[in-house]
Amino acid sequence: MPELPEVETVRRQLSRHLPGRIVVAVDVRDPLLTAPAHPDELGLLVGREIRRLGRRGKYLMVHLDDGAVLVVHLRMTGALRWHPPGDDVEGLRFLRAVVTLDDGAHVTFCDQRRFGRMVLLAPGGDPEAYWRGRVGVEPLSAHFDSAALGAALRGRRTPVKAALLNQALVAGVGNIYADEALFEAGVHPETPAGRLSRARVAALADAVARVLARGLDAGGATIRDYSDAEGGAGSMQDLLNVHVREGLPCPRCGTTIVKTRVAQRGTYLCPSCQRKGRR
Ligand SMILES: [Zn+2]
Question: What's the gap in Å between 241 CA and the centre of ligand 1?
């Protein structure tokens, strides 16, 4: 599932191709993509110029010249991809939408599991209203530090991993980067979020920012099916310390990495480096 580094990689690639282009056609092949809105709503994009690409957490944003914003959520298996003019896109598997641009290039959205969504925010609205309560602090922004993470976790009895996965608290962290950040901070994923010491919160804030930055440098992680906007793979999967490394030795202490279940998600940890009860 694409997380912040994967979505940001897609955003940066699309930013090289889309700004200044005009949308000439939008063909939605799967009505679920825009649900509960009717797919015809995306017809409002036709004739509009794309100004820039933005991102909040795991959501991509396409800003149009009339102030409208197309929000794209890749969810489990969604893949947004740019194809140069002349490329045939009809043979793509799980093709859900095709956007044609004025230079003949296409942007496709393919999605095997069909959880991905597109939402068109009308011009004149307050785009920030869409994010309120939905997406929390951006962990690669200057607003994210131990104080911000501490405020997000304060008073919470849920496992710290569940808190990290809660998009309304910290934006863009998913299962891969949560496991990696908890390992690097030496925090057991089941530790109640609000019970972490100030020092552990600081270590965790550093670790979250560090693993996300590393993921971004690596162009994301391709573990099952993530591919970037140009059809390429990331290499973060080669740099993981614990995630999907069950049965392998911990790179720090040699203890065997175990898999458990926290917050309904497969969770990987080193039982020596991440002791339960340590705060
Ligand atoms: Zn270890």
Answer: 9
Does the annotation mark 251 as catalytic? no
* Residue 231, both tokens: 């059809």
In angstroms, the Cα distances linking 14 to 45, 61, 93, 123, 147 are 17, 11, 21, 22, 33
pTM over 0.85: yes
Domain ranges of the chain: 4-131, 146-269
Judged against a pLDDT cut of 90, whether residue 184 lies above it is answered with yes
Q: What gap in Å lies between CA 71 and CA 56, rounded to an integer?
A: 10
Tokens of 252: 């720090």
Q: How far is the CA of 156 from the centre of ligand 1 (A)?
A: 27
Amino acid at site 44: L
39 among known catalytic residues: no
Determine the distance from the C-alpha atom of residue 247 to the mean position of all C-alpha atoms in its chain, rounded to a whole number. 27
Collapse the DSSP code of 220 into the 3-class scheme (helix H, G, I; strand E, B; otherwise coil) and give the result: coil
pLDDT, tens digit, for every residue of 32-67?
999 999 999 999 999 999 999 999 999 999 999 999
Common-topology check for domains 4-131 and 146-269: no
d(CA 85, CA 83): 7
The domain 146-269 having CATH identifier 1.10.8.50: the answer here is yes
Residue 2 is a catalytic residue: yes
Q: How far is the centre of ligand 1, averaged over its atoms, from the C-alpha of 242 (Å)?
A: 9
Report yes or no: 225 and 217 within 8 Å, Cβ to Cβ.
Answer: no
Architecture of the CATH domain 4-131? Alpha-Beta Barrel (3.20)
